[in-house]
Design goal:
Pfam families: Rhodanese
InterPro entries: GlpE_sulfurtransferase (IPR050229), Rhodanese-like_dom (IPR001763), Rhodanese-like_dom_sf (IPR036873)
Helix content: 25-40%
Strand order of the largest sheet: 1-6-5-2-4
Distance between the termini: 31 Å
Domain Rhodanese: 39-129
Number of strands: 7
Protein name: Rhodanese
Length: 147
């Protein structure tokens, strides 16, 4: 008996619904980098790690807002018309999930960055260091994913 087919696949219609639903919760480094390179203003990137971790290296333009500090007061200045993309160190860290949950509970639209900063760096996307958010470099190549 096939291990893959032991549980039968969903119908195409169920697969479409599930996969569309799944993509409403997540984005990947390539899609985020493409939007940042194009100056898409409807999204804002949130670094959910500690401020020290943020200063040691973060996504260009990301706002430092540690998930442990998120509440109505700390998020009062955020634009509720934007979609917030949260990230942490990577797949072994759930800080981005905790941040996305807190933001959603506060009424914000959110997505998580798959693989966090680990996948971002692995793919060679621009970084910034220090307390300043930094800006997307004008000379950064457009993101082109091989998938």
């Amino acid at each position: 008996m096939s291990a893959v087919l032991f549980y039968p696949p969903a119908s195409p219609q169920h697969s479409v619904a599930y996969l569309q639903h799944k993509l409403s919760y997540y984005t990947d480094a390539w899609d985020l980098a493409a939007d940042l390179a194009q100056g898409v203003t409807q999204i804002m990137v949130i670094d959910a790690r500690s401020r020290d971790a943020y200063q040691a290296g973060h996504i260009c333009g990301a706002l430092s807002l540690p998930h442990r500090e998120m509440d109505a007061a700390s998020t009062a200045r955020l634009d509720r018309h934007r979609v917030y993309v949260t990230y942490c160190d990577g797949i072994g860290c759930n800080g981005s999930t905790k941040a996305a949950l807190k933001l959603a509970e506060l009424g914000f639209q959110v997505k998580e960055l798959i693989g966090g900063l680990d996948f971002w760096k692995r793919d060679g996307h621009p970084m910034a260091w220090g307390a300043a958010a930094g800006e997307w470099p004008a000379a950064a190549p457009a993101a082109e994913c091989g998938c």
